[in-house]
Amino acid sequence: MWTWFHQLASPPTFYRFADVLAPWLFGFAVLLIGVGVYGGLFLAPADYQQGDAFRIIYIHVPAAALSLSIYTLMAVAGGIALIWRMKLAEVAVVSAAPVGASFTALALITGMLWGKPTWGAYWVWDARLTSELVLLFLYAGIIGLNQAYSDPRAGARACAWLALVGLINVPIVHFSVTWWNSLHQGASILSVEGIRNPKISGDMLWPLLVSLGGFYLFFGAVWLRRMQNEVLWRERNARWAQAMVVA
Amino acid sequence: MSAAAAVFRRELLLAARRPAEWAQPLVFYAIVALLFPLGIEAHDPALKVFAPAVVWVGALLAALLGVERIFRGDLDDGTLEQLLLADAPAPLLVAAKLAAHWLITALPLVVAAPVLGIALGLEPLAVKVLTLSLLLGTPTLMFTGGFAAALTVGAQRAGILLPILVLPLMTPAVIFGGGAVRAAAAGLPFDAPLYFLGALTALTVTLLPFAAAGALRNAIE
User: Fold this and answer.
1) To probe the interface with B, which of A161, A167, A173 has the most B CB atoms within 10 Å?
2) Distance of CA B43 to CAs B40, B57, B186, Å?
3) Do B211 and A161 touch (CB under 8 A)?
4) In terms of Cα–Cα distance, which of B185, B218, B205 is closest to B92?
5) From first to last of its 221 residues, what are the pLDDT tens digits of chain B?
6) Domain count, chain B
7) Closest-approach residue (CA) in chain B for A167
8) Best residue in A145, A167, A170 for a mutation probing chain B (most B CBs within 10 Å)
9) How many CB pairs (< 8 A) connect A and B?
10) CA distance linking residue B121 with residue B125, whole number of Å
11) Helix segments in chain A, DSSP class H
């Protein structure tokens, strides 16, 4: 197990492994997102208060959950990159940032579209919304920092430091609805209480969980593909990379 | 410890020979605060409402002006490598450098803040709280700025990246700083946000020098 794990850290092995894994992740992601969105849009009943407006939850919640998970993963990869100087972890950090920024933007946009019919405003300056916006700027900073360096390894390590320091924002976003009075509703699913005693009806919940799983798999597939590209570019002078491109 | 004191003295000496370093942020601060009343009507009572935000955001921007240069000159003339090679722990030397920089550029802004607060129509108590909140909050700003400067010093195309890295991390300081002044102006207790600011400062001043030293090592490799 450990030898396999160590081999996986070598770029050519990773490249071939990702080549096998990514299509599977992508296939299951399409399947799960399809089922989840179909279940959410057609099978789940309309909300008694919000009508059909609530159905954007099947995109909004997975995107928001990913925006936080990706940042956390990035910080973990950053820690690994800084402590063990692992090339692949550096690649993981810089490849995750644009994907995370996209999901953050998607969560903000779907949230705004949801806010207009239910709250009466696209945007309010409350803790959850503002901290999610700050998260978007942190992603933007990481992307910008990576592009500012001409040495990709130094750039990735600088990004790793920033990801670690910015990690402080993740719990702030997650607990913002608990710590401050917020217009945004509290946690329905991802809380200790929520798991014991669900606050959302089962026929609305299952498409959300399926869609959530699909989004995570989709992120996995995109991440692997981006990492493959990044590895190929960084190793462009190595023989295996050239052989891979020619083949 | 003597190494840290030497670094601290060197920074002060350099600043004493270049008064522009502390004078220019101060002038910039005054101009920014002056532009706000011109933007809204001069006798608008809203000015008083916006005053805490104006004074805080102005201080943030003014303090950030010189931050980019904290490590730049040292990298160019090789001092930075000597600092990191020195026998003394690098985070301590970084902290000494940032503390000196706070004294040179941020403390004058804190001293100027009550003048601007009064000019923008704040009550005496609110002015006092405003100054106290800046005194507690500016070290956070300087140490976060120093960390960002360490991240960007090795970058070839940094541009205006530094404020983009620092300002999102400054949101808690603005929330609690502005919050304390607003509470004081409304006659409410204002000690809780000030404690939060103090906690933020304790956290950043103790932890960020380690991250900054790591980022500097990365930059000179």
Assistant:
1) A161
2) 9, 21, 20
3) yes
4) B205
5) 688 898 899 988 888 888 888 889 999 999 988 888 888 876 777 788 888 888 999 999 998 888 888 898 888 888 888 888 888 899 999 999 999 999 999 999 999 999 998 888 888 899 999 999 999 999 999 999 999 999 999 888 877 889 899 988 888 888 889 889 988 888 888 888 899 999 999 999 999 999 999 999 988 87
6) 1
7) B169
8) A145
9) 67
10) 12
11) 2-8, 11-38, 57-84, 87-119, 127-148, 152-166, 169-179, 192-196, 202-234, 239-246
Query: CB A37: neighbour CB atoms within 10 A?
Result: 17
Task: Count how many domains chain A has.
Answer: 1
Domain extent, residue B179, equals: 2-220
Show Cβ contacts of residue A29 under 8 Å, excluding neighbours closer than 6 positions. A214, A215, A217, A218, A220, A221
Which CATH number do you get for residue A181? 1.20.120
Residues of B in contact with A131 (CB under 8 A): 171
Would A3 be classed as within a structural domain? no
Per the CB < 8 A criterion, the answer to whether B94 and B209 are in contact is yes
